[in-house]
Amino acid sequence: MPVLIRTLGHGHIPPASQVFLRYIVACCAAILYFVLTKSKVVVKKHDIPLLFCVALFGYALVNLFYTWANLSTQIGTVLFIFNCSTVLGPLLGFLFLKEKINSIKIVAMTIGLLSLFFLFRPGPFVTWEQGALFAFISAIGSSFYVIGRKKLGNYDSKLILLTNTVVGVVTLGFIAILTESYFFTRSGIGSLTPSTWIVTILFGLDNFTAYLFMTKGYQLVSAGTGSMVMLSENILGVLFAFLFFAEVPTITTLIGGILILTASMLVILKSEKV
Q1: How many domains does the chain have?
Q2: What range defines the domain where residue 146 resides?
């Protein structure tokens, strides 16, 4: 995501507008998937406020602040701060969902936090500035999404994703037009290159697919287990960087990857059923 965010930034798409365009693609994919699977909108009245808040704060605004963060400070710093919320997943599950937090999860949390230092090597605190604040806000929103998803229990992931993307399009569309109206002109959106549009479309489809599987995953496992396993996406990022960009991982990166695998395997092997 950080690489794609900066790619679109260099393609002259301002932050709110690039999230808005990604959400349009994700929303179209969510609607198509919802229709093709013949799903139905069935929501209990007392769950509507939580469903809306999860979509607004846990989806729509998270990616906006995450985008701002990656355009405002070092990527390593952003990923370190954002992933700290993932490491603290078992603690959040204990506080808000009454999930058990055993010794295995405590060990996994400790190993996971240590892995972040090796993997991302965040810049000096004095360099964090507003980008770190945006990353912290997006981390809080991401944690809220996990807790909210578990609170929504057995609601179909397709319904939650449909709500997410619809609220995301409306919210980000309003913000983008309000703050970046200059972009929606012939010299702005009308001047984007075909390659920039392709990246935007692929990014939107990636957003849809990632949230679909993540939302389904959190329905099947505890918040603590799911959040720790989510750390493994960073290993895939290192692998893709090696395969597609010939970026050879350093010793510290390899150590961080091994620690993440260790933490993930601990919670997978010792996870409780939900």
Answers
A1: 1
A2: 2-270
